[in-house]
Amino acid sequence: MKLFETDFFLQWISVVTMCLLVVGTAAFISIPASLSHHPGEALASAHTAMTRHLT
What we know:
Blueprint: H1 5-35, H2 46-54
Keywords: Membrane, Transmembrane, Transmembrane helix
């Protein structure tokens, strides 16, 4: 099976697009979480944050 140039570029574009989606999703999740903390404050686990919120 011969791989044509257009097939290579389509595969390359799809891989790059998926990488950008993964990075964008991680940034979308992590940036708001990091902005809610004060600088220098350690990021707590979800359990610790929930305990602190309830007490």
